[in-house]
Amino acid sequence: MDLERTLVLVKPDGVQRGLVGTIIGRFEATGMKIVGMKLMQVGEGLAQRHYAEHEGKPFYEGLVNYITAAPVVALCLEGPDAIAITRKLMGATNPSDAPPGTIRGDFGVEISRNLVHGSANADDAVREVGLFFSDEELIDYSRSNDVWIVSDEG
């Protein structure tokens, strides 16, 4: 089974509402591994590159303004079918359409404050992970198999 990587952003409303731990916990509970994580302030240039596909649309400026207004938590998650699992767990973009049990269904307030972003497909995931993380910032768990062994020797 091939592993996929995907980008997840806990958006400013998720950070401001103190939901970072809850949201990350939901992703971890699926068995996906966090291979990159950082709290950051998104600058205008990064926001414009991230949302480039929406440039010229009526909501583009609002997307850029919102994602740059307050800190976000950027995650790179890895696992089998990581993109599909992440998308399903997030729920529909509009929280009123997201079923209970999804992040947006349980915690979302409105479409413009929907807590999380996740890569839509494999091409977007590669591009988006590359925007938010350098290769040096991503963990390779295959090199750390012994870390999971717990010892009483400290």
Topology (SSEs and partners):
Blueprint: E1 3-10, H1 12-16, H2 20-29, E2 33-40, H3 44-50, H4 60-67, E3 72-80, H5 82-90, H6 103-107, E4 116-118, H7 122-132
Antiparallel strand pairs: 1-3, 1-4, 2-3
Describe the structure.
The protein has 154 residues and is of the alpha+beta class. Helix content is 36%, strand content 18%. Strands 2-3-1-4 form a four-stranded antiparallel β-sheet.
Parts with pLDDT < 50 across at least 5 consecutive residues: none
User: How many helices does DSSP assign?
Assistant: 7
Sheet with the most strands?
4 strands, antiparallel
Number of strands: 4
Summarize the structure.
This protein is an alpha+beta fold and 154 residues long. Helix content is 36%, strand content 18%.
What are its keywords?
154 residues; 4 strands; globular; alpha+beta; four-stranded antiparallel sheet
